[in-house]
Amino acid sequence: xxxxxxxxxCFWCLDAVYQKTMGVSSVVSGYTGGHERHPDYYSxxxxxxxxAEVVAVTFDEDVIPAEVILDMFFALHDPTTLNRQGYDVGTxxxxxMFYETTEEKILFEEAIERNQALWSRPIVTEVSxxxxxxxAENIHQNYYAKFPEQGYCQVIINPKxxxxxxxxxAWLNA
Length: 174
What we know:
By secondary structure, the chain is an alpha+beta fold. The chain has helices at 11-18, 41-45, 66-76, 102-116, 143-146, 151-168; strands spanning 2-8, 24-32, 52-59, 84-85, 88-89, 95-99, 126-129, 134-135. The chain is 35% helix and 22% strand. It starts with a strand and ends in a 6-residue tail after the last helix.
């Protein structure tokens, strides 16, 4: 099993797609990359903690290649916008990849290079060593499954799920 910690805007969006991805055994929404110890949702949303909203995606490479997990990441958000995804603005929504090993760092850098061809502007995704990962509060875990009728889910997450189904249907459970 391998775990990647990825930030692509609001963690609910990445969580919703990776929860439906074959070979993914767990997705944990959380916070990392900042200076505040034990942050919570409200402090991270304030933009003062330095943390990004991220997901820790644990998957089986015998079922789904690491490259597919990473290419999905680049398809599910705009990695060319600095510190924003759509209406979500601030460093907490930055495009980010946090590595634990040199091998992961290389995979992340290769994914950026591979996916740059799909974007007309430069990818600004931050690649950093993973500091402490703080799991988010329970309400944020598997958020889309809990609240599919919520407005954010309908307007923001549903189009991302539709895009994932269009391009990655072979890897999705639903």
